[in-house]
Design brief:
mainly alpha; about 80% helix; about 190 residues
Length: about 190
Amino acid sequence: KALTQKTGESAWFTEALIRGVMGGGDTHARLAAARELASSAESANDPLLSAWAYRAMVSIDPSDERARAAAARLEGAVRRHEEELALARQAVETSAADGRAVALYEVVRLARSLPDDSQALAEALVELAEDSLVPRSSLDAQWTAPVEDETLFAEACRVAERVGDYAGIARIARSRLDARGPNVRVRGVLVA
């Protein structure tokens, strides 16, 4: 937490808390992770992630009335967000190749704060990370290198690892090495 506060980068801290809540094991540790995640998500103004953490707290400790009330308070926003996510998934399924990336980015935007949808998030991120190594058109290939987003690659690896999609991680790491040549960090992803 101290490193997160110092650097301003909270992705791995949030990821650790999500995994702490999702992981089976010590009930007290899961509850502590859910409480910290709810607090952190509210500080970051992420009501969907805090609602998920509150719901997890209620499932771990059904007698926690504060968590139940907080989850109920945020339920309307969660329901609307889940409806938007369902529409975005339909858009991915029905979109043509040139519009697919836009629809996938929408799925990513909507699923980021809903850990229950980690599988869909991982699939979208891995596909986008693979797609980011391909030039958008022949004109783009003439004038610019392929779009490559370090943040997208890192998030794809992190979320794919959360859901156990190691084949997806290997695929995007190999694609990245093939497209860009030697890279110690990407090779490290393959070794891990």
